[in-house]
Design goal:
The protein contains one helix and ten strands; from the N terminus they run αββββββββββ. By secondary structure, it is mostly beta strands. It folds into two domains: 32 residues; 173 residues, Beta Barrel (Porin), CATH 2.40.160. The termini are far apart.
Length: 209
């Protein structure tokens, strides 16, 4: 009986010893295979919180992972983002209530540029999919055409939260679907304008970690 248990122990230790390098190699490969720097752009479709219609435009994004990020910070990236929403369907005027003011105007043009943090945990990666969450601060510019009004543009510090998912097409190319919810504070009154919508980006991976 003692020989039997000794044989079992030796077998288990042998399997663990053989599996350890493979496990370490898999963890290392998963770590170094994650993008270090990605950049690209794409198409955006947003509800500008203005007349119930959608605005369309374009985006540019840079996503960078710093070289030394200890512990849970290893899943944090720095992101820079630009978005321009300058196109709408139809040429009609819309009535919208923004804050405390009723405005009769055409759809506005919105631009934001800024940056912040994204959190993309490695443990939630599935095959080629990598979900993430983000929080950003941006400078925002808004302009509109309202006949009979001389007030036609403004700017704000815009905060936003959101998230999305990356899909690795190849080692160098990644597709991203992103959702963002923005706050433009005290525009036309005490309340905020809250544009929100989706962006589809194509990103190029310049390096891996």
């Amino acid at each position: 009986m003692r020989c039997k248990w000794l044989y079992v122990c030796v077998l288990v230790l042998s399997l663990m010893t053989a599996a350890a390098p493979a496990s370490a190699q898999a963890a290392y490969a998963a770590s170094v295979d994650r993008p270090r720097l990605m950049a690209g752009g794409g198409f955006a479709a947003y509800n500008p919180d203005w007349g119930g219609k959608y605005s369309y435009g374009y985006s540019a994004v840079v996503d960078w992972h710093p070289p030394i990020m200890p512990g849970f910070l290893n899943d944090v990236n720095l992101e820079g983002e630009f978005r321009g929403l300058a196109f709408g369907l139809g040429n009609g005027r819309y009535t919208t209530i923004v804050g405390t003011q009723v405005i009769h105007s055409y759809l506005p043009t919105l631009y934001t540029v800024g940056g912040g943090l994204t959190y993309q945990p490695a443990r939630l990666r599935f095959h080629r999919f990598s979900p993430y969450a983000k929080a950003l601060g941006s400078w925002g510019s808004i302009s509109w055409y309202a006949p009979g009004s001389t007030y036609s543009s403004d700017s704000r510090t815009v905060t936003s939260v959101g998230g999305g998912v990356d899909y690795r097409l190849t080692r160098r190319f990644t597709a991203r679907v992103d959702y963002e919810y923005q706050w433009w504070p005290q525009l036309f009154g005490p309340n905020a304008l809250t544009p929100h919508g989706f962006t589809i980006d194509g990103l190029y991976n310049f390096g891996h970690r």
